[in-house]
Amino acid sequence: MKKYNFSAGPSILPQVTIEETAKAILDFNGSGLSIMEISHRSKDFEAVLDEAVALFKELLNIPEGYSVLFLGGGASLQFAMVPFNLMEKKAAYLNTGVWASKALKEAKLFGEVVEVASSKAANFSYVPKDYTIPADADYFHITTNNTIYGTEIRKDIDSPVPLVADMSSDIFSRPMDVSKYVLIYGGAQKNLAPSGVAFVIVKDEILGKVSRTIPTMLDYTTHIKEGSMFNTPPVVPIYAALQTLRWLKSLGGLEAMEKMNLEKAAILYDEIDRNKLFKGTAAVEDRSIMNVCFVMNDGHEALEEEFQKFASGKGMVGIKGHRSVGGFRASIYNAMPKEGVQALVDAMKEFEKNH
Question: Do 97 and 224 sit in the same domain of this protein?
Answer without folding.
Answer: yes
